[in-house]
Amino acid sequence: MLTIILMLISVICYSVILGMYKPQAAYKNGMLFAVKLPEAAAGHEELKQVQASFNKQFLYASLWMGGALVPMLFLHDLSAFQVIYFFVWSAVLSVVMAMPFRKAFARTLALKREHEWFVGDKRVVLTDLRVAQHKNARSAPLWLFIFPFAMSVGLLWWSFRQDDQSYGVTACGIFLTALFFLVSLYMRKTRAKVYSMNTEINLVLNQAKRRALSYLWLWMAVAENVHVFLIFMLVNNETGNMEGAWLAIIVLFAAIPVGAIYAVYRKIQALERDMLEHDGKTVYTDDDEYWVNGFTYHNPHDKSVFVPKRIGMGGTVNTATVPGKIIKWGSFGLITAVVVGVSFMLIRSELTSPSLAVTQDDKVEIHYPMYSFDFSLADIKELTLVDAIPGATKTNGEATNQYARGHFRLKEAGKARLYVFKNNPPYIRIKLEGVTIYYNEKDSQQTKKLFESLQQAGQ
């Protein structure tokens, strides 16, 4: 299952990057490789050479990165290293696939300066005051976020009431709702874009864009809370024959927000294209110098935090502003911390095994990082040696193809703590009040000896 999930995510990331960079080789909306050019310059022979070079380099990069996915399949039995390989592959993908575009952007910009292919005024265009006054007139009211916040708080309260270890899952609802709220809030502070010399066109397009995006983020907050609820139901599902159905629903539901984002931005682009085609008063601005490598915006003269992207859909931050710097480096730090932390825990899990011992004061201690547990011998209701473990769903722990450790929910048996090497019977089953423990050693003979020592200690 882990291999399938990682491969699916990898293919999606690979496809998104292909769809983002490949179209930049075609002159569209007055730009080539994110450089603004007059239409008369688009067919210049030197630009054609840049396009041909980009297409060749991008093809090689695509083939190499696609082929680099194959080794991940052979790490099927080494889950920790498979995940780390996925992290490394993702990082390399983002760098390697961007290199042809960055080179093409630099060469195109150099040719533009050499031939003086400038369009419009080489300056920052400030928005019309009438546009600025009305830019938020039709955005979704922020108070509507009360509803997704209420959904996320209610789900978290429900999981606590059930005393369920999956409250970490439900807490994601509050985090995602807060994230979409902040995105919606900052979106309202972005500068209104000047599309045309016609003020009415500017007003209509800016209002339409902000309205569409404000309701998109509100809807996303609601949808992701429903998504978290579905994941919570899967985690707590104790009916084995329903697990496939829950997984299918969750995967399908995850595709809905992606489709919604794509549809909204396509609708905005279509509206812009339609209105400007009939207006004939389009305003072009030449601010290429503020676009580092074509996709990073750094303009100290512009106080907007968010601006529309030149490649792909959506917006990007102005890294010259204080909030932009915080978002950029904060995101980088957060991603780095998550990747390093997860990699460390995976390697530690791969190299560390649980240990069980009986102390002199008749206590049983199970030692394992983050999931250690102890109990009195007198608390044991039943001690048996079994050859199989019921189907289990992880609620807070580690589960790979080789082992399962931490908090789980067993089908028809409820809460459990597992410290087992999978498909390696026998297993020591210890029933306590409200929880069942399964434990084994990698060596089956060691498991049997440990079981006997527990029996003797309990007599």
Overview of the molecule:
The strands form 5 sheets. Strands 10-14-15-13-12-11 form a 6-stranded mixed beta sheet, with helices on one face. A 3-stranded antiparallel beta sheet has the order 7-8-9, with helices on one face. The protein has a two-stranded antiparallel ribbon with strand order 1-2. It is 53% helix and 15% strand. It is elongated and about 90 Å long. It has 459 residues and is an alpha+beta fold. A hairpin with a 2-residue loop joins β1 and β2. It has a domain at 355-458. α1 packs parallel to α4 and α2 runs antiparallel to α5. It contains 12 helices and 15 strands. Mean pLDDT is 80; it is low at 121-136 and 238-242.
Task: Summarize this structure as a short list of keywords or feature phrases.
459 residues; alpha+beta; 6-stranded mixed β-sheet; 3-stranded antiparallel β-sheet; 12 helices
Biggest sheet strand line-up: 10-14-15-13-12-11
Number of strands: 15
Separate helix tally: 12
Overall geometry comes to elongated
Query: What is the N-to-C order of secondary-structure elements (H for helix, E for strand)?
Result: HEEHHHHHHHHHEEEEHEEEEEEEEEH
| Biggest sheet layout | 6 strands, mixed
As a percent range, the share of helical residues equals 40-55%
Structural class: alpha+beta
Low-confidence runs of at least 5 consecutive residues = 121-136, 238-242
| Oligomeric grouping of the chains | single chain
Mean pLDDT score, rounded?
Answer: 80
Strand content: 5-15%
Instruction: Give me the Rg, rounded.
Output: 28 Å
The end-to-end distance, rounded to whole angstroms, is: 43 Å
